Amino acid sequence: MVKWGKFLVWIVLCVLLMGNTQAQNDSIQEILDHYQTTRATPSLFVLHHGSRTNQLLTSQEVEELAKRLNDQFHGENLQTYKSADGVRYQGDHLLSPSLKVAIRVVDDRPTQTKKKPYVSLELRGTGAPDARLKQFQEQFRQICQAFGMTPSLHFSIQGDVDLKEASELKSLIQSTTKSFGATQMEEMTTEKTVSISYFIPRWGSGIVTKGGEMNLQVSARWNYQTNRAVLTMGTPIITIEY
To answer: Could you give the 3-state DSSP secondary structure of residue 42?
Structure first.
């Protein structure tokens, strides 16, 4: 009975994980499809996974994990940085002039015998994403499952939009997000920047903030140098400078 109980728990966890992954993939695709309908010209996009491992590891196992993750992208130069705050393993891989992958494994509890290091996988590209984005979504998901992590994907896309003046930033966001059917949760407004967070139930759970749960953030910033707006969308939250 104990073995069957563990097996059933494993099945339930797999189903929940698949559902969460599917919701993440759907939200990313929906943002991509929607962004193409805006007046924005994409200039930057970032796909990011960040979480701690599910299992406790020794310092040696943390280093081995970093090397194995680096090998997933045929990396050769894994850098190690030691400080009073811990040990950081870092690998950067240029895939093309417009696309690169960055790997970070952080042991922020170096004195502990067993710990759960923080792992970051990041795909960063310039211009509009192509079919490789979906390939890396799947690769990140497979890597997480293979290395004992729960996939936690964030996606952000940014581009320039022609506007008459900075006073139109909020209306730009509202018109851009209208078709999402999203519920506004929080808003931050300054002279040249507007950032609004939303919740879209079909995308699943998100990040809990003071205003409530959010899984979409949209910002518009006025660039006085170009006299244009910078429009950024992110799920569940923007992870790049906006």
So the answer is: strand
